[in-house]
Design goal:
alpha+beta; 2 domains; four-stranded antiparallel beta sheet; three-stranded antiparallel beta sheet; 13 strands; rod-shaped
């Protein structure tokens, strides 16, 4: 081998070692970046003994797909779980102290006390006050639910805007990858960026990916709707300025295809958008129906009855009064109120609750005017515990008493909240473990990189020693000449 060839090989070795060292240094500096995939410097030998470095990027397509699915599931479930916690406090209060069930229980106790001493005006006033608490619970519960739905609608609008922005960024990264792949340049950084964007997109909707020629990627939702193919597809949503009990929320569309709120039960969601939709149109709407049916049950239980005359609203009335509602009335819980005829604060007479006659003389039960008359008060308590038919839209057994229905509403919600919390913990663990498995395959192990750095240092020293030896030989040759 000539000295010039040996010199060329030594220079090539130094350059190769320098590039390898640069790759290892980059790996170590980005070891804490969860979106960074380890770079591998592969040495390729060429004639006559020269070497070059081909930089490859560590990947595991199967683990990455599993991680995307786990991220989407966890994001949707945590959104649902945290929303349910907010809704529970807003509607039922701490330990359900502000719930309709608690207020109805207090009303029953007040009725029982009043029935034991019907002549006691203070006990009668106590019945009116506890009834007012029940009304307040239903009114404020309705307001809280509709405010919550309005907030969820706003969250959906923000999420749609953020998703559209991510898709635009994805387009830029994808174009950079295609261009770099065609020109033969290193596109590892662009691939890292595109994978990071995929993780963020998966938090909003569950996605699937397909890679075509030149590393071009197509992104769809798991149900087949196209999110990105060459260009981003539009994600559209029309927010509502405010919500009422009868308001129907707008649908989110991806490429003009509506998003399904959930692929599982009411306590499960995949992706933030599905979680928000589930809260707005599923849980909150069902809770509103439950409150409306509780309000209907109270109006019916305290209605004045005098066959063959029609039943008329008694202690409780509503905007459709004095008629008694016979089916689910959307928003009834927000309009129920104390009948002015028995409310002292409105100039009413408390004794009408005991005696009847709120709707005229034909409905009077205490015809003798006895101060110890209690049959009507006892009857009210019995009606609260008597079975009646509720609308199935409320999500609870169709036949139940008012007291049982109101307590079952709490049980229904707590069951969903517990299931959602359990699923959120499970899916968080799955997302964490899948991310860990992916990191083990594609992430950076600092100890291994430092060990490789020592090997490269030794290689560099050997190459440098070879260069020094060749230099000495060339000097000797020149002196001899």
């Amino acid at each position: 081998m000539s000295l010039s060839s040996a010199l060329s090989i030594a220079q090539s070795a130094l350059l190769t070692t320098s590039r390898q060292t640069s790759v290892v240094t980059r790996n170590v500096s980005d070891a804490s970046n969860p979106d960074y995939s380890r770079r591998i410097a592969t040495v390729v030998s060429t004639a006559p003994g020269a070497r070059s470095v081909d930089i490859q990027r560590a990947t595991n397509a199967q683990l990455f797909r599993q991680n995307l699915a786990a991220l989407s599931a966890w994001s949707g479930q945590s959104t649902l779980s945290s929303g349910l916690d907010r809704l529970q406090l807003a509607v039922n209060g701490v330990d359900n102290a502000a719930s309709a069930s608690t207020a109805i229980g207090n009303l029953q106790n007040a009725l029982q006390l009043y029935a034991t001493s019907p002549s006691n005006q203070n006990l009668g006033a106590s019945v009116i006050e506890t009834a007012r608490q029940a009304v307040r619970s239903l009114n404020e519960g309705t307001t809280a639910i509709q405010a919550f739905r309005t907030d969820m609608d706003s969250q959906i609008s923000n999420a749609v805007g953020q998703l559209n922005d991510l898709l635009v960024q994805f387009e830029g990264a994808n174009k950079a990858i295609i261009s770099g792949t065609r020109s033969g340049t290193d596109v590892s950084d662009a691939l890292d960026k595109r994978d990071a964007l995929l993780k963020k997109i998966a938090e909003y909707v569950p996605i699937s990916t397909y890679t075509r020629g030149d590393n071009d990627m197509v992104v769809t939702t798991t149900d087949g709707t196209t999110l990105f193919e060459t260009i981003p597809r539009s994600v559209s949503f029309t927010p509502s300025p405010g919500y009422g009990p009868a308001t129907t929320g707008a649908t989110v569309y991806i490429d003009n295809v509506p998003i399904s709120p959930s692929s599982g039960g009411i306590s499960e969601a995949t992706g933030k958008l599905a979680g928000f939709l589930q809260l707005r149109d599923g849980v909150a709407s069902t809770m509103q129906s439950q409150l409306d049916e509780i309000a209907r049950g109270l109006i019916d239980a305290f209605a004045e009855k005098a066959p063959p005359l029609a039943d008329m609203a008694g202690l409780f009335t509503w905007q459709g009064g004095p008629a008694v509602p016979t089916t689910l009335e959307p928003g009834l819980a927000g309009t129920i109120r104390i009948n002015a005829a028995v409310d002292p604060s409105q100039g009413g007479n408390v004794n009408l609750v005991r005696d009847g006659g709120i709707n005229g003389a034909a409905y009077i039960k205490n015809t003798t005017g006895g101060a110890s008359y209690s049959e009507l008060l006892i009857g009210y308590g019995d009606r609260l515990d008597a079975p009646m038919t509720f609308n199935p839209a409320a999500g609870i057994s169709a036949t139940s008493s008012v007291t049982s229905f109101s307590s079952n509403a709490i049980g229904w919600f707590e069951s969903i909240r517990q299931q959602a919390t359990t699923l959120a913990d499970t899916k968080e663990a799955l997302a964490s473990r899948s991310a860990e498995a992916l990191s083990n395959e594609t992430g950076v192990n600092v100890d291994m990189e430092m060990s490789l750095m020592l090997d490269l240092e030794h290689t560099y020293q050997a190459s440098a020693r070879l260069m020094s030896t060749i230099d000495q030989m060339l000097n000797a040759l020149l002196e001899a000449v």
